[in-house]
Amino acid sequence: MAAIKFPAKFESLDEIRDYVGKKARAEKFTDRAVYSIQLATDEAASNIIEHAYVGYTNASIELTCVFKKDRLIITLLDHGKSFDISKVETPDITTDLSNRKIGGLGIYLMRKLMDEVHYEVTKNGNVLTLIKLKD
């Protein structure tokens, strides 16, 4: 399946959420799973816009969403700044809100909401893959 390009702007997030939600509903995912898929994809796209493309103009996110066997596979490709996902610390969510570091919840949320989260830097760009198994 061909990728769909979305402008890397916060205004694109509604359209991105709607797109993955429709794909998940078409494959009969539960409402709860659809919500998780939409929230995780929103976090992924937000991180790309805010961090990978900081200082960029006219950037885009290429999104694919396919169902194979028992899983929905969402791939987001960007050409912005890459990072080392292994260096992202798990946030301490037990600490009082006033004492927590700002940020750092996006990847944690993606990992909690999805069954698999993979990130790699390739010659074609940064590839973030989110996988949700069907119940």
Summarize the structure.
This protein is 33% helix and 27% strand. It is of the alpha+beta class and 135 residues long. The radius of gyration is 15 Å and the shape is globular.
Key words describing this protein structure:
five-stranded antiparallel sheet; 135 residues; alpha+beta; Heat Shock Protein 90
Largest sheet: 5 strands, antiparallel
What's the CATH superfamily, by name? Histidine kinase-like ATPase, C-terminal domain
Number of domains: 1
> Secondary-structure element order, as H and E?
EHHEEHEE
* Largest sheet, spatial ordering of strands: 1-2-3-5-4
Architecture, according to CATH?
2-Layer Sandwich
Radius of gyration: 15 Å
Into which percent range does the helicity of residues fall? 25-40%
Strand residues, percent: 25-35%
Low-confidence stretches: none
| Coarse structural class | alpha+beta
CATH-defined topology: Heat Shock Protein 90
The number of helical runs is 3
Number of strands: 5
CATH class: Alpha Beta
Question: Roughly what is the average pLDDT, rounded to an integer?
Answer: 89
What would you call the shape? globular
Distance between the termini: 24 Å
